[in-house]
Amino acid sequence: MKELTTFEGVHCANCTTPMQGEYCHHCGQSIHSVLKPVHGLFEEFFETVLHIDGRIFHTLPPLMLKPGFLTLEYFSGRRVRYIAPFRLMFITCLLSFFVMHLAADLMTYRIDHKHQQAVLTGQASDFSDDETPADVQKDLSKNLAMLDATRTENAGAGGNPAIVAEVDRMEQKYRDDAKHRLAEVAASSSSAAAVASSVATGAHTEQSDDEHEKPIKPIQISWLPDFANRRLTATAQHMQENIQALFHGNAGQRQEARDRLITNVFSALPETMLVLIPAFALLLTLIYIFKRRLYMEHLIVALHSHAFIFASLLLITLAGMLSTWLKPHAAWVGVAMGLVQTVFFLWIPIYLLLMQKRIYRQGWVMTVVKFGFVGWLYSWLFGLALGTAAILGLAH
């Protein structure tokens, strides 16, 4: 009766039904207005985050340390205190791929920056190991391409006259060194003179654009509609352009193609995994067909297994990034993070084996045999998924 008197005289703003609680029993609309001051929005946000964090504290420790515990809890009906399996897998999947993508970008940047610094400081190829004029020209083209990339990067950052002058000085130095090396290794004066002339004039012995940018022949499959054939032709053309830029373009084109490939692969992997997880559950259904379990039970096992794998990969990647950042300042950090990565790499197969043993309750011999067989099939499926993601990455 207390709740009835509390809302006496209050009507639903949507259907004018007398309110008997915080939600209308006729249309379901809340009595609370969405028009709130800013501090009310922050309060609601933190309330939601704290609610999620409470479930995270109940979910993550057993996920990482107790193989099969969350799955058995879910089977027994104790679910409200834990994050739902699909949501748990989806969140860990997105976070792990995002961090791995970030780590790949940082590693690429460090490698390119280190190479560019080596070119600018004269620590790149000094042509001393080149034995033929072609080798000299190849190293020269590589060094000049990195100088061009440095020049482009400097122009995009506003332009530093000192860097421009240094790039010009190093370009002349590399050309002089290449001509000097050509004079030493030239087997015939004619071939050396031809290459030296291209070095002196700044000409690059690259294949013509026409040779690399020939359009492919349109794809025509008789039983497909015209729009599908046009789509396949455009996809093949994109793949050809990306491959050519990746292997035959200049430094800027190679970097752009590599970034595009990495970005597209990581963007395609989550969707690919959404297909791969049900396939893994189907494998478990076939392997444990005599256990007479529902497919949904195997799917829950697959979701929790992949959530653990993604969380482990996330921690491994974070440990590697911390090692890269902190190792120059404290060498022991690199050793500690390397140990953390090793422990997680070893714990993944052990965890999955113990999880399979605990959930399906078979002897150790049968569990190990089935675990190995499922792992072997899944590795092929995962390789196929990675290959598909790479193809999709090249097709964009």
Computed structural class = mainly alpha
Q: Which term fits the overall shape? A: extended
Order of SSEs, N→C? HHHHHHHHHHHHH
Total count of helical runs of at least 4 residues: 13
Strand content: under 5%
- The percentage helix is over 70%
Could you name the ranges where pLDDT drops below 50 across 5 or more consecutive residues?
A: 1-5, 203-212
Distance between the termini: 64 Å
Q: How many strands appear in the DSSP assignment?
A: 0
Tags for this model:
396 residues; 13 helices; 3 domains; mainly alpha; disordered N terminus
Task: Describe the structure concisely for a colleague.
InterPro entries: DUF3667. Keywords: Membrane, Transmembrane, Transmembrane helix. The chain has 13 helices and no strands.
Please tell me about this protein's structure.
This protein is an all-alpha fold and 396 residues long. The protein has 3 domains: 1-35; 85-102 and 241-395, no CATH class; 112-224. The protein contains 13 helices and no strands. The chain has helices at residues 2-6, 38-65, 69-76, 85-120, 133-156, 161-185, 189-201, 209-212, 226-248, 251-287, 295-326, 331-360, 364-395. Helix 4 packs parallel to helix 11 (295-326) and helix 6 packs antiparallel against helix 7 (189-201). It is extended, with a radius of gyration of 30 Å. Keywords: Membrane, Transmembrane, Transmembrane helix.
Topology summary:
Elements: H1 2-6, H2 38-65, H3 69-76, H4 85-120, H5 133-156, H6 161-185, H7 189-201, H8 209-212, H9 226-248, H10 251-287, H11 295-326, H12 331-360, H13 364-395
Helix pairs in contact: 3-11, 4-5, 4-10, 4-11, 5-6, 5-7, 6-7, 9-10, 10-11, 10-13, 11-12, 12-13
